[in-house]
Give the backbone structure.
Amino acid sequence: MAGKKLKGIKGWLLCYILFLSFRLILDISLVIIFQVFNILLAIEVFMLILALITMIFKLPKAKIINLTYLIISAILAVFVNFNKLISDNIQDRTNGISSIIGATIASILLIIYLINSKRVRNTLIK
């Protein structure tokens, strides 16, 4: 792999795009099946669609849009779980904290990947 130029939607970049697709399907199913809709969900769905389109079409702004999405999704996790954090129920608080920590860790790891990946750099050429 040393002499091979990593390029295209393969490997971990493909996994990331599948992750975005799964999140989008999950969010849309919340709206359709459970009839849940609020401004936070609307923001996430909008950012997911934007992130997916820019990645699939390998647009030059895809990296910055996806980094923005990851930061916003970590922040949205705090707002979505805020009621759990202030709950009197210890189980609810624990679930809220673990959801926030999970979203934050996932966002940090994906941000590090998008910034440092040679495949991302070679695929999303300006």
